[in-house]
Structure formats: structure tokens, C-alpha cells
Design goal:
single chain, alpha/beta, 231 residues, TIM Barrel, 16% strand, 9 helices
Length: 231
């Protein structure tokens, strides 16, 4: 994919974010774009970085480590957005800036204990499975408070907010419902000490609905990079 194509795609996604923010009466600067770069070649990440993109999301630890090692660039942020596995927590804790799918007390403790002493606290979002889908990770909404309380005792973790991955929905009203529920849960759990300012929700097909319901970070892959060149 050419630099011009990546530039154009990023501009189109930013235009969608700006339009949705305008509909919601929000400042588009409060909505971050996470470019989901899993299964994309390093050249595509380099092109997006050259176009001004700084945050990239990866789901597979070894693939991500290869990219992180090969592409050191100013201001780049690496977000782990896959399912956290116990045998991968040391690598995740050592090499990522964010984790978007925390949903296990054991994983929280491991990430805290394995975070390098000279690194900043690991930014985490607690994943909530609003629809109770067996195929997806995430806590039931009523379990989120307990994990949040644990994380608040772990100094190498910084809980930034909540994340969800709802089932696909056809129309905007149906898309908005789970995002509204996550925002309501955040409002219930947030405190002065832990404001939970990040709502990690919305992807290529439903980012408008997510922004209308308060998303502060949209995770976009296909709309930025096009179809994945390999699976």
C-alpha cells in the first residue's frame, strides 16, 4: 500500500471522527484513533507513522514484538488489544504501553509484578463483555468493580478506563445501545482517584455510534489499512 493511500485513508477516518464529534457536540481532539495494525506489514505501519499516526494496536504478542523491535520511532505507542494469556504477560508487561483487554485478577497481578521497574505504569482498560458472548473475553458488568478495586492496589498498573467489543449490529440505534451501557457503567465506577477517562469502543463499522455515546478511543484497522494481506 502506497504512502498516498495510507494518507488518504487516515484522512477519511479522521473526517468520520470529526463528523461524528460534531453530531455529538464534542471536541474531536478528545477522541483518539488507534490504528489496528495486526497482520499488517511493517511498511504499512511506517507509512501510517509518516502520516502522523502514533498509536498502533496489535493482538499477537510475537508478531508485535517483531514489529516493536524493528520499528523504533519517536512518539510511537503500542497497544495490546488481543486476549491476554498467562504465558505472555511478561512480554506484554515489558513491551507495551497499553493493554485494552484486562479481565482477569491473575493477569492483573502478573502484569503488575512483571512490569519493568524503570517503566511507567502500564495503562490498562478493563474489558467488559456486555452481551455475555462465550466467544469473547471480558467480565460481566457486575464483576468490573472488583477488578477495578484490585488494580487500584497494584502500583505498576494505571486503570485508564473500560473497553468493549459488542456483537455486530445493522442500524445505528442498535449499535449505540451497548456503547451507552458501557458509558453508564463507567460513570458508576469512576472516582476522583480513578476517573476512567478512556472509553475504548468503536471500530471501522460502528465508530460513529461509539463516538455519539462517548467513546474517547476508536480502534480502526480496515478503514486505515484496507483488508489484511494475510490471516
Amino acid at each position: 500500500m502506497t504512502q498516498q493511500t495510507i494518507d488518504s485513508r487516515l484522512q477519511q477516518v479522521q473526517s468520520r471522527i470529526q463528523a461524528a464529534a460534531a453530531r455529538a457536540g464534542r471536541d474531536p481532539a478528545t477522541i483518539a484513533l488507534l490504528a489496528v495494525s495486526k497482520k499488517q506489514p511493517l511498511a504499512a505501519i511506517a507509512a501510517a507513522h509518516a502520516a502522523g499516526q502514533r498509536a498502533f494496536g496489535e493482538s499477537y504478542v510475537q508478531e508485535a514484538l517483531d514489529k516493536i523491535t524493528a520499528f523504533e520511532a519517536p512518539g510511537i505507542e503500542w497497544h495490546f488489544i488481543g486476549r491476554v494469556q498467562s504465558n505472555k504477560t511478561r512480554q506484554i508487561a515489558a513491551h507495551f504501553d497499553w493493554v485494552h483487554g484486562l479481565c482477569s485478577p491473575d493477569h492483573a497481578r502478573r502484569l503488575n509484578d512483571q512490569r519493568p521497574a524503570d517503566a511507567a505504569p502500564l495503562n490498562v482498560c478493563i474489558q467488559v463483555n456486555l452481551a455475555g458472548e462465550a466467544s469473547k473475553a471480558g467480565l460481566a458488568p457486575e464483576q468490573a468493580a472488583e477488578l477495578l478495586a484490585l488494580c487500584q492496589t497494584l502500583p505498576a498498573l494505571r486503570v485508564r478506563g473500560l473497553m468493549t467489543l459488542p456483537p455486530p449490529a445493522e442500524d445505528e440505534a442498535a449499535q449505540r445501545a451497548p456503547f451507552r451501557a458501557l458509558r453508564a457503567l463507567r460513570d458508576t465506577l469512576a472516582s476522583a482517584a480513578t476517573p476512567l477517562e478512556c472509553l475504548s469502543m468503536g471500530m471501522s463499522g460502528d465508530l460513529e455510534a461509539a463516538i455519539l455515546e462517548g467513546s474517547t478511543l476508536v480502534r480502526v484497522g480496515t478503514a486505515v489499512f484496507g483488508p489484511r494481506p494475510y490471516n
